[in-house]
Specification:
Length: 171
């Protein structure tokens, strides 16, 4: 029998706002290290977290927080979506997943994702989607180990600004 994890999961509440902002900045810093076009962590508006917290109240998504004692170790945010071009019922998309560096490699991310999968089933969804940067090897390993498989490929082509004919600015 596995021992109980050293953390608990619960829906995020307004009192978690400051901790979620700090965790979201950890996420942004990690993504900035992988992709230079990301804004710096301190530039992420606090309203981003406020929007996440409203999902729980709105019923079309939510935020689950992992607590080690009174300390927020990580969180996952998700939303239910219906694609009008799909015949399947709604799907759930994990929009944010972050674990504080001091709490990594202890099952927190796996537990957060498993919680979201359970919420998806309760919503009648038949699948959970998640996107991550291709350089985020720990996330890719986690999702693969949990049974996620590639579905879509997003390709990027950097576009260089061209000098308009005759010089000057484009119309």
């Amino acid at each position: 029998m596995r021992p109980d994890p050293p953390f608990t999961l619960r829906p995020a509440e307004p009192r978690d706002r400051a901790a979620l902002i700090a965790l979201n900045r950890d996420l942004q810093a990690a993504e900035l290290a992988l992709r230079a076009s990301r804004i710096p962590p301190e530039a992420v508006p606090d309203s981003y977290v406020d929007d996440l917290l409203r999902r729980e109240a709105g019923g079309d998504g939510g935020v689950v927080v992992a607590l080690e004692g009174a300390v927020a170790a990580g969180f996952a945010a998700w939303r239910a979506e219906t694609d009008p071009l799909e015949i399947d019922p709604p799907e759930v998309r994990i929009t944010d997943l972050v674990v504080a560096p001091a709490h990594r490699r202890r099952g927190v991310a796996r537990a957060l994702v498993a919680h979201v999968v359970g919420r998806a089933a309760a919503h009648g969804a038949t699948r959970v989607l998640v996107a991550t940067l291709t350089g985020n090897r720990p996330a890719l390993a986690l999702y693969g180990a949990m049974g996620f498989r590639p579905l879509l490929a997003t390709l990027e082509l950097p576009v260089e600004a061209e000098e308009p004919e005759g010089g000057g600015r484009p119309p």
